[in-house]
Amino acid sequence: MTAVVDPRPRQREQRSVRVIPGRKSRRPAVGPWLIVAIIAIGGFLGLGITQTSLDRAAFELAELNKAIEQAEDRNLDLKLQIARLESPARIAPLAEEMGLVLPEDTRKLYVDLDEEVPVYAEAERGESNQ
Q1: With contact defined as beta carbons under 8 Å apart, do 129 and 117 qualify?
Q2: The pTM is what?
Q3: Averaged pLDDT, 64-91
């Protein structure tokens, strides 16, 4: 038996994976996912900042409301104090101690405000015109 040498290279056994020329393998696109992730992170940070500023404004509003209530209470106290000080029952004894008395003879004086009042002399500085 003589052996015959075949000059052609021996073909390998065919594999199940074939390489198709002209098509490159593509890696997954990261760009769009990166943009979505950046937008999502920015949105969450924006919501956090907004919530913080709203909370700060709510605290300031609460402080202002408290200050308003205190001012209203003080105003009410001052009105009550004015009413007590203006009371004729308090003023009459003080006036009598100072020597003031109620006049016995009273006269009504009517003034016509539409009529012009004549001026007899100009008042000097520090003097009264009456």
Answers
A1: no
A2: 0.44
A3: 95
